[in-house]
Design a protein that fits this description.
alpha+beta, 23 helices, four-stranded antiparallel sheet, 15% strand, nine-stranded mixed sheet
């Protein structure tokens, strides 16, 4: 199968080169470790956090590595620098075996191990800071307590693209007991609180709608849920909530301006007592802003303990779930009695109209439940529909009918009411990830308020410039309307981005070296580095060994003035540079030749971060030259194998080298091209790869037979008959159709036209000639063969 790109064995590495690289990397690793040990890991306000490695995370990494490296070598990967030494050369070799057309002079490692790239990133961030795009302050970010730092997208095993969600904690004060047996623990807690001078015990539901608190009729907890009573240092109060939410709250600022956190010690919170939800039922509560002086804690079986605090405040006028749950407790006294809920805790509490919505009345939840005929909390799909509609209409069209802001639109009143409740000590801000986020050390992340350098994405003028560029088809090609919608949506929500962390691989922030620039933030304009990398590093120099620099350039010579001259319009030739002016001019001309970047190919999951951030940073660095901003991104979906998600447990997890060795490079590429063209997940079919081997072999044999082995005197030449013209026309048509498909990055469509329909046209021609008893026309067949080979060299270059 040599014609299909079956690779040779790995060449042996040069022992001297390997030894030198190992020594350099070991020294770099030791230097980083010494620095980390000396400085510690500051989470906030100068407090040092110890970083622990998750045992589960280590086991997971070990199991993955076993697939790729000898098991006895795995312990060496505890050193992160070892990854940089081990895998990139293998990646290059595998890509070569796959038949990738790459200018390997421009390949490089993107961490501080590569001094050239490190200098490039320092220059980039100095420019961003000069332009006011990098700022410092306390910000809420997704954070791993185990790792002791912000957990950016590429540091996650689950939850990429998930950001912080703001909630308002509503403080419902416990105002006594109704059942001595059930509330025995609460009685002891209240006694302790009184004896120690603590202000009170509060159930703290997390809500997105503080403006609706005028309509509270009760509070819900999950009877089987596990709750804790946590001491809050900042307010001298006790909050009852889930352990998960208490863990997150312990990392958040109570008063960010004065650096005051909810708890004395970042990431730690004191639990005074634990409760099952059933032990909290029937508690009388004081609910701020409610028209009822006293409400009760009731059961709700659909509460998720993985979202919010596990406590839900009930506003049945505007929340369909609350309306249905309260109505069921009223209508089914036997069900209520099962949980010790008496009629006086439900029947007196009528729906309180608080928001008027045209067409929905002043009790939209009741209106929607009756409209959709919802009678049970188990009708989740209908309830979700009702919730989405009432919340949207309430915010956009609703008008407050109660309270000091009656007559105002909900959209206007909401932020005012939120601030008033916080100022009055009735509520606090609370944040958590929009959905579950797990770090690569297997830690479920929280949202933490930390001192942070951040990029001011979302800033109005910056965002509008990028959006104008992306939405103009003359300046940007997204290749797919669904992709374009995702870019527009990302630009609407992507705001301030934590661009640094406190340890890990990467470049130190030039002006504050205790910080390391995180992996997504240092990978935004590196496409411009490709244009000059062959002068700095050259072939087989991924780590940037200065002794191998083709232009004999030293890292120390790459000053900001040098990069400014190369990359920025109007910057003068740097004075006193050790790099010859001729070389600098060549690098500048090379950048100007290649830029703007016409096409970048990536995956759909990078639209919410890397790809949009690259647009932002190009727009910042080259704000005076929009013609240099990216001109097109093509994004694809993930890949499945035989219509199933790749999984080691299913045994369908394919790696590139294994696949190439099994099917050949060309058959693998054939199956990849056939896998799919859209944002939907593509399907790599092993049957297609196997069939490609047969098809490519058969076509190769036929072309050789007809053009080499067959006596030319037995073939026709000269004037064309009707079917000769038909095949010729079909060949021309399919060549053009294939070109159009390839131009649009539609390789499956191109394969359909350029291979399947081409061979069908030829087969019909062969059948006609055979049935008619005439020979094929040599010129027509030769044109067809040449066209097929040229078309297919894009997909199957070895064939």
């Amino acid at each position: 199968m040599e014609q299909f790109g079956v690779p040779p064995k790995f060449p042996e590495e040069d022992p001297e080169v390997r030894a030198k690289m190992e020594a350099e990397l070991a020294a770099a690793a030791k230097a980083k470790a010494d620095k980390a040990a000396a400085s510690g890991n500051k989470a906030k306000g100068g407090k040092t956090k110890l970083v622990q490695k998750s045992g589960t995370g280590i086991v997971r990494q070990w199991n993955i590595l076993k697939r790729m490296v000898p098991e006895e070598e795995i312990p060496q990967f505890a050193d992160p620098i070892h990854w940089l030494m081990y895998f990139p050369p293998i990646g290059v070799e595998h890509m070569k075996r796959f038949g990738s057309g790459v200018d390997w002079r421009r390949a490089f490692i993107t961490t501080s191990v590569n001094g050239y790239y490190d200098a490039f990133i320092r220059w980039q961030f100095n420019v961003l800071r000069e332009k006011g795009k990098v700022l410092f302050g306390k910000r809420n970010n997704v954070y791993s307590i185990v790792d002791g730092q912000v957990c950016a997208d590429h540091d996650r095993s689950e939850g990429e693209g998930v950001g912080p969600q703001e909630y308002v904690l509503i403080k419902l004060k416990v105002k006594g007991l109704t059942n001595e047996t059930r509330h025995a623990k609460m009685a002891k807690l209240l006694e302790k609180v009184e004896n120690e001078g603590i202000k009170g015990v509060f159930l703290v539901p997390a809500t997105l709608r503080p403006e609706t608190m005028y309509g509270q009729t009760n509070c819900f907890v999950l009877p089987t849920g596990e709750y804790g009573a946590y001491y809050i240092d900042a307010t001298n109060e006790v909050f009852i909530m889930s352990a998960r939410s208490a863990r997150g709250l312990s990392c958040q600022a109570y008063d960010a301006a004065n650096d005051v956190y909810f708890t004395k010690e970042f990431g730690k919170i004191t639990c005074l007592e634990t409760f099952m939800g059933e032990e909290l039922l029937a508690l009388p509560l004081e609910a701020p802003n409610s028209v009822y002086p006293k409400v009760y804690t009731l059961p709700l079986l659909s509460i998720s303990m993985g979202k919010g605090t596990g406590v839900v405040t009930s506003v049945p006028s505007d929340a369909p779930d609350d309306y249905v749950a309260l109505k069921m407790l009223k209508d089914k006294p036997d069900f209520a009695a099962k949980y010790g809920i008496t009629p006086d805790m439900t029947l007196p509490f009528d729906v309180v109209p608080i928001i008027s919505i045209e067409g929905y009345g002043d009790a939209s939840a009741k209106f929607m439940c009756e409209k959709l005929k919802i009678t049970s909390p188990n009708e989740k799909a209908k309830l979700a529909q009702a919730k989405d509609e009432t919340y949207l209409k309430g915010f956009t069209l609703g008008v407050m009918t109660v309270g000091p802001h009656a007559g105002k639109k909900v959209s206007e009143a909401k932020p005012i009411i939120k601030e008033e409740m916080i100022k009055a000590g009735q509520a606090h801000l609370y944040f958590e990830p929009e959905s579950k986020v797990v770090s690569r050390t297997n830690d479920e992340c929280v949202v933490a308020s930390t001192d942070q350098w951040y990029l001011a994405y979302g800033e109005e003028s910056w965002c509008s410039a990028v959006k104008k560029h992306v939405l103009d088809e003359e300046t940007f090609n997204a290749y797919d309307s669904a992709s374009l919608e995702k870019y527009e949506a990302t630009l609407d929500w992507l705001k301030e981005w934590a661009c640094t962390r406190q340890f890990g691989l990467g470049t130190n922030l030039p002006w504050d070296k205790q910080w390391v620039i995180e992996s997504l933030s240092d990978s935004t304009i590196y496409m411009s580095y490709y244009t000059i990398a062959h002068y700095l590093q050259g072939v087989n120099n991924l780590n940037g060994d200065e002794s191998k620099s083709p232009a004999n350039i030293k890292v120390e010579d790459l000053t900001d003035d040098v990069f400014n001259y190369i990359y920025r319009k109007g910057c003068p030739l740097p004075e006193g540079s050790s790099i010859p002016a001729e070389t600098l001019t060549k690098m500048r001309d090379e950048f100007r030749y290649w830029y703007p970047m016409d096409l970048r190919v990536s995956a759909k999951d990078l639209i919410p971060n890397h790809l949009t951030m690259a647009l932002y940073n190009h727009a910042a660095v080259w704000d005076d030259e929009p013609d240099l901003w990216p001109r097109g991104y093509y994004t694809n979906g993930h890949i499945m194998v035989d219509a199933e998600k790749m999984s080691k447990s299913k045994g369908n997890f394919l790696m590139m080298l294994e696949t190439v060795n099994k099917y050949s490079a060309d058959a693998t590429r054939f199956a990849c091209a056939d896998a799919g063209d859209t944002l939907d997940d593509a399907n790599f079919s092993r049957d297609t790869a196997n069939a490609a081997i047969v098809s490519l072999s058969n076509e190769s044999a036929w072309i050789k037979e007809i053009l080499v082995d067959t006596d030319k005197s037995t073939l026709r030449s000269g004037e064309l008959n009707f079917m000769d013209t038909v095949l010729q026309n079909e060949t021309n048509r399919l060549v053009k159709a294939t070109e159009d498909a390839f131009e649009a990055m539609q390789f499956r469509e191109g394969l359909q036209k350029g291979w399947f329909e081409m061979t069908i046209a030829r087969n019909q021609y062969k059948s006609y000639c055979k049935d008619s008893g005439i020979a094929v026309h040599e010129g027509v067949v030769r044109k067809w063969c040449e066209s097929l080979v040229v078309i297919m060299c894009t997909i199957c270059p070895h064939w």
